[in-house]
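pasting for the record
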Amino acid sequence: MKIYRGYKTELDPNNKQRSALFNTAGAARFAYNWGLAQKIKAYEESGKRPTAYDLHRELNILKKKEKEDGGFPWMYEVSKCAPQMALQNLDFAFACFFRRCKNGGKEKGFPAFKTKKIGGGSFTLLEHIRVDRSRIKLPRLGYIKLKEKEYLPLDGREDIKILSATVSEKAGRWYVALLVEQEVSDPLPIKDEDPHVVGVDVGVKELAKTSDGEVFENPKAFVKAQKKLRMLDKAVSRKKKGSKNQKKALKKRAKHYQKIANIRRDNQQKASTAIVKSADVIVIENLNVEGMKQNRCLSKAVSDAGMSTFLRQIEYKAEWAGKQVIEASRWYPSSKTCSSPGCGYINKDLTLKDRFWICPKCGAKHDRDFNASFNLKNLAGSSPVSACCPGGADADRIGRVKPLVGQEPNTSSEG
């Protein structure tokens, strides 16, 4: 079967290549802003907006004109894909804006003009991408060294087709992300007899606790770095606006934010990979993370944990490995229900600050998070089939079951 995968790694450009990267990103940003201005102007005049294809055709005409005549001849210095993809991204931004308006979202998110003050930007290339052991070739940019060797899929493999390369700048560092179409062998079907089921309870204090007894710590990178971030914020505010010293302070602060993001991302990737490798069936919760962020006492900790990203990683890694993912309903009281066999008592008085509790019915002592993971595991029953039967006893507790490519028809169904 074919799957889509992304590979991201850091580039190691020299000074000349760094300037070329900034120029290409600048051309993509210019095309995006120019296209946005054209869309706004056309809508005010006629009530209609030109598409990305219309704007690209007009941009090609302007590229042929001299600068004195209002043309953009300097765009010939960069790859044609960068502005072309920027205009397509603009169309996608408007599509998202209209979808949020239709769904009645609080924040509509009308596309905004981009500025280089918040970073070097990014651009996407589609054609003539080549990957060697320690370098990558990009159109109009040539070969650029990679800091991590033999991570990107090498050019010439029959099972991999490179679709695009997105180059971005963060905190003074340049990264390339490859989107590839990869041919992989069909995953083996899950055994019906005795699949290994794992319930995963995610939280703020610990990133995750599983029914196997595994605890994955939450590094709390942002919370631990708050003192340092306050010092960096003060350093920025005390510099003259627009001065070189302020730019240096902004760059230093950006590097620290990037370090925080890297710590969080590394921990999530390792934890999600370990969970997927350890189980045949994984039961997770459907969390309302945005609703949890509305609690001003928890919002910072919830954002720092990155629970939505962590659960998403479990889902797509399970799909790659041919594992089954079951998503419990967000209304299922996994933490409040006693997980002891034959009990099922629901402790309605349990609060967030209660990390341990004793069941008044059977007397069992429960760790809140482990108890939730045991209850999630029990939702799957003895096999995926029992958890997936429509209209079954567990139908109101299971939000949805995600059947994966390559599984046999009798191993999963909609629940």
